[in-house]
């Protein structure tokens, strides 16, 4: 295993220490428990937006903390959901009184931890709401699985929620908008190579010289299927078609309602993409794929969307939600309206996203 | 025979040791159908539990289980951390301020824990999760106790049923947790959480058997 | 070879097409000959800043085209210097009459091509100056070698030159400032893994499981030496010490002087770093190393600089000058003064750098 | 015997073919002490040269060489592209509007090209570059012609000297170009540019020898 770390036990802490040193004006970092908050948190009168998830997906989520995006982020161990005590401490620190929105990627561990944290935060008197991100079309149904995974859509949801919170939306409004962005997002990813978790010290899965994995998540889990390697256009077409041809997707989402002080269940349906849709396109590196290769993907994606009369009105090309040093890419498309677009364009100042 | 605080502490120490020994094995199982972190995470978690307990020996069982549950929740991460954490928190509410458990108490404590797992995770038998161990194992324990067998023998039956439950996950298609994303590809692999659950119940049987021997 | 390309013959063109589609408001791209210019070029009255070099170092240089940085960039074949015809066409297109500064990384091929291009541009009536970037301390002398290579310092030089040009500096002033930034920059890099050029289809060099290469350039060239793998702190210390302990470095630099219409030679000396210096620190991924690992490096770098009383006043952590998908990192330190710092902080809007 | 435009065209076609055949070999040599692009780049460049010439056959030699030089400069990239480009541009100025070269003309043309390489690249014999081929090879050619040997024979001696010059780069420590960064580590490897230069001179000898045979 070749990595720039000092030891398997200390590297997450050391990465956080490095971040703290690199962004003293932007971030404040707690190591015990681990969380990252805006240097100026809590921001008076503003809804706080908090997310979190396993480490190994950087810049997600810590790299998105700062004005215009997240107020706080909780990193877990590598590919392991963070724990409720982190979320509780982080949430309390960023809550200005206007409440906390928890953005949760749909993985059993994340969901269970955030659910517990929501209850704890509420118990401490913080208004709290939750929004679920479950955009990975590689997972086909929710009746016989844990539901779709949260992947690239999280980046878009965090940006829009952060923008709305900065603009003065109240907790219910930010939550409603964030959930709307989430159900209008669809993603799919693929791996050219495996990643290696520091603890395991060897690749999570073995891929032959000419094999690739389609429909992967972001934790080095095996994907939907393994196929012989093909070219960038074919891969882009494969992933884009899965996204664009994905039908209506209905699932039951639990979210915390601070007005009733309990969980409510809602059936939410993602409508398929249609000609005339306007979208934000994220072409994302899994970590080890350099940005130049992503442009070849973007080229084909733009061509397919044009042919289908889907207008890419904004794009983001780079490494935003990764699986350590894995090579591969994912595509996320989010259907937008003017309100969403306004908050996408709103200023943001974080380590990884800035405009 | 009563299960004392000391026996429970021994049990948890054995769990920590056996999970640490099986860390790579469990992580490999998780690599096949999950995200390759199960062994590392629960070994870390139970290690922390044992450290915490060592600092405060001889607590009433409710406090002991609560401490274990909170520690697991804040150190493991992932699905299993929350589920095992919940297991002990629920066990704690039944154990209360007892310092020893008779057979019926033990069964009630374990069943409360299992119900906590099911309540949080909403998995059913057949979903290829740790529930596939806990449900048949505690059914076997209940049956053995109801048949009047001594605790040590009943726990041995419980561990055997756990082992069968664990093996039974191999041909299953996962419906809950990370493995469910694999669909058909999850078939043929043993569930990592079921495996750690078996090791936990195996350690309980061994701890009590050892105690029994000494008596 | 696992890469997101379609074919060895078309991938550079396709990457450029992808960039053009991704940044229509920012960039204008010519495919024959290949170059990338600001969408609003030429900018009336402004000195144009142009650079270029082999492909495979993305985002360098094309990702740095835009307001506040480069007016134009010329990408060559992979790891191969671009050709004078590209530079000529690009230079003519961005020249508003205020002249063109050519920023040249010190490699024989780049130098020879840019020298020819400078003569051609001058012949076409464009005021032209050149600045050489030669910051790689892994190369020890200039008497017995082609001189130090241009590496990470190029990113800093391009940002400062772009800022000064935007602020209205004239050609001589921008050139003078850029050369000052260049001689105050020192870099050193290392590789954990080799890269694979698409044309070769296999790794450029073979490294054992426990071997790493110290003092590499940015073209997959073998480095200064090969050592057994060690940890991030040791590697960071090794590279930082080489940079901070590097003595005065004197070399003869040829630069084009449009006032005399010919090349002039100057002896330039880089002064060693000293306690009390203020620096910009760039911790750079060679392409395949994810950003999280770079924070561990930054942590140690900050510690060493603090101990030596060198103040890191700005930093940049990420993949800015790469060697395809190579894993590894480089460190660049640039001594700054208030003027340089002002132009570092000046707004920039490019695909890869924006604030 | 005169070297006609047709022979020069044949030479360049042979060069394009032989460089294409040796593309991987040259790139491997460059991988060892450079950046693994030499073969690919000059094969592409001479391929382009030949295409250009095919479109405009029978030009005067000055125009032909100029076209070759400009094409190399705009298609090869890298040090060798500029150096070979300069070679032909300088050769062009000597060739002028001639359509055939006698032995003395040929020598003058090649020497002008070599001087162009040295002028641009400022390398000396012993620096481990293509100059280590051109200088001894053209010295051998000059000596052979001065000794009154026929062109074909003299070019054979030239190619042999080129081959020796190429081999002589192996033990050298590089002082110019990318290989110079390696210091001691450059020792023991054959210089890629010297190798392509040998192949170019070898192709010249072969082209003229074939021509000679036909006569
Ligand atoms: N909903 C659930 N109910 C019960 N057990 C579950 C559930 N989801 C996952 N598990 C168990 O958790 C195990 C995985 O644990 P672990 O790897 O630690 O968590 P994660 O999947 O978050 O990485 C699975 O093998 C399974 O036994
Ligand atoms: N200054 C120089 N003078 C003469 N030849 C040189 C010089 N620098 C490099 N070369 C030749 O160029 C060859 C490398 O060519 P190539 O790989 O195409 O260029 P680059 O080094 O730019 O990648 C070297 O093997 C050497 O023979
Ligand atoms: Mg996990
Ligand atoms: Mg797991
Ligand atoms: Mg090159
Ligand atoms: Mg080369």
Question: How would you describe this structure to a colleague?
Answer:
The complex is a heterotetramer, with 2 copies of chain A (355 residues) and 2 copies of chain B (215 residues). By secondary structure, chain A is an alpha/beta fold. In chain A, 29% of the residues lie in helices and 26% in strands. Chain A has 8 helices and 14 strands. In chain A, the strands form 3 sheets. A 6-stranded mixed beta sheet of chain A has the order 1-2-4-3-5-6, with helices on both faces. A 6-stranded mixed beta sheet of chain A has the order 9-8-7-14-12-13. Chain A has a two-stranded antiparallel sheet with strand order 10-11. Chain A is globular and about 55 Å long. The two termini of chain A are 36 Å apart. The model of chain A has no long low-confidence stretch (mean pLDDT 96). Chain B is an all-alpha fold. In chain B, strands 1-2 form a two-stranded antiparallel sheet. The N and C termini of chain B lie close together (9 Å). Chains in contact: A-B, A-C, C-D. Chains A and C meet through helix 1, helix 6 and helix 7 of A and helix 1, helix 6 and helix 7 of C. One adenosine-5'-diphosphate (ADP) sits at the interface of chains B and A.
Compile the SSE list and pairings.
The complex is a heterotetramer, with 2 copies of chain A (355 residues) and 2 copies of chain B (215 residues).
Chain A: H1 11-22, E1 27-31, E2 34-38, E3 48-55, E4 72-78, H2 84-94, E5 100-105, H3 108-123, E6 128-133, H4 153-166, H5 171-183, E7 185-191, E8 211-214, E9 225-228, H6 232-244, E10 249-257, E11 262-270, E12 278-285, H7 291-307, E13 311-318, E14 328-335, H8 338-345
Parallel strand pairs in A: 3-4, 3-5, 5-6, 12-13
Antiparallel strand pairs in A: 1-2, 2-4, 7-8, 7-14, 8-9, 10-11, 12-14
Helix pairs in contact in A: 2-3, 4-5, 4-8, 6-7
Chain B: E1 3-4, H1 5-21, H2 23-33, H3 38-55, H4 61-75, H5 78-95, E2 100-101, H6 103-121, H7 131-146, H8 151-168, H9 192-214
Antiparallel strand pairs in B: 1-2
One magnesium ion sits between chains A (79-80, 109) and B (35, 37, 78).
């Amino acid at each position: 295993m070749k990595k720039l770390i000092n030891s398997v036990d200390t590297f997450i802490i050391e990465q956080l220490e490095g971040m703290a040193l690199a962004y003293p004006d932007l971030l404040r970092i707690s190591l015990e428990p681990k969380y990252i908050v805006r240097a100026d948190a809590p921001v008076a009168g503003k809804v706080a937006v908090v997310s979190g998830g396993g480490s190994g997906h950087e810049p997600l989520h810590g790299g998105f903390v700062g004005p215009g995006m997240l107020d706080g982020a909780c990193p877990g161990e590598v590919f392991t959901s963070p724990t409720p005590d982190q979320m509780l401490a982080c949430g309390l620190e960023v809550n200005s009184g206007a409440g906390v929105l928890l953005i949760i990627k749909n993985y059993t561990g994340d969901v269970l931890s955030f659910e517990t944290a929501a209850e704890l935060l509420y118990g401490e008197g913080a208004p709290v709401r939750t929004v679920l991100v479950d955009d990975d079309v590689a997972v086909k149904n929710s009746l016989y699985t844990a539901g779709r995974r949260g992947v690239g859509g999280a980046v878009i949801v965090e940006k829009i929620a952060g923008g709305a919170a900065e603009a003065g939306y109240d907790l219910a409004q930010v939550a409603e908008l964030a959930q709307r962005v989430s159900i209008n997002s669809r993603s799919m990813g693929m791996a050219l190579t495996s990643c290696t978790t520091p603890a395991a010290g060897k690749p999570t899965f073995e891929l032959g010289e000419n094999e690739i994995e389609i429909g992967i998540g972001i934790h080095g889990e095996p994907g939907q299927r393994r196929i012989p390697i093909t070219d960038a256009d074919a891969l882009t077409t494969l992933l884009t078609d899965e996204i664009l041809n994905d039908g209506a997707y209905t699932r039951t989402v639990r979210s915390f309602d601070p007005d009733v002080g309990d969980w409510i269940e809602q059936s939410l349906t993602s409508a398929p993409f249609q000609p005339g849709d306007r979208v934000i396109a994220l072409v994302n590196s899994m970590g080890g794929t350099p940005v130049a290769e992503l442009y070849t993907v973007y080229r084909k994606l733009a061509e397919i969307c044009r042919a289908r009369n889907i207008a890419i009105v904004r794009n983001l090309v780079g490494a935003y939600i990764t699986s350590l040093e894995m090579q591969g890419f994912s595509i996320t498309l989010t259907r937008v309206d003017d309100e969403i677009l306004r908050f996408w364009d709103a200023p943001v100042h974080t380590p990884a996203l800035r405009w | 025979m009563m299960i004392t605080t000391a026996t429970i502490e021994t049990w948890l120490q054995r769990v920590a040791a056996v999970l640490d020994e099986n860390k790579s094995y469990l992580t490999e199982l998780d690599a096949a159908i999950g995200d390759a972190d199960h062994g590392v995470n629960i070994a870390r978690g139970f290690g922390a539990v044992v450290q915490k307990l060592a600092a405060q020996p001889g607590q009433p069982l409710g406090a002991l289980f609560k401490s274990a549950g909170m520690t697991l929740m804040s150190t493991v991460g992932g699905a299993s951390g929350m589920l095992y954490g919940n297991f002990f928190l629920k066990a704690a509410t039944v154990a209360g301020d007892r310092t020893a458990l008779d057979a019926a108490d033990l069964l009630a404590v374990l069943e409360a824990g299992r119900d906590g797992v099911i309540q949080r995770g909403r998995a059913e038998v057949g979903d290829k999760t740790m529930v596939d161990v806990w449900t048949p194992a505690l059914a076997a324990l209940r049956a053995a106790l109801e048949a009047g067998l001594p605790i040590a023998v009943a726990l041995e039956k419980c561990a055997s049923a756990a082992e069968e439950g664990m093996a039974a996950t191999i041909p299953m298609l996962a419906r809950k947790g990370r493995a469910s994303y694999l669909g058909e590809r999850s078939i043929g692999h043993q569930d990592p959480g079921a495996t750690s659950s078996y090791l936990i119940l195996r350690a309980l049987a061994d701890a009590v058997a050892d105690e029994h021997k000494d008596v």
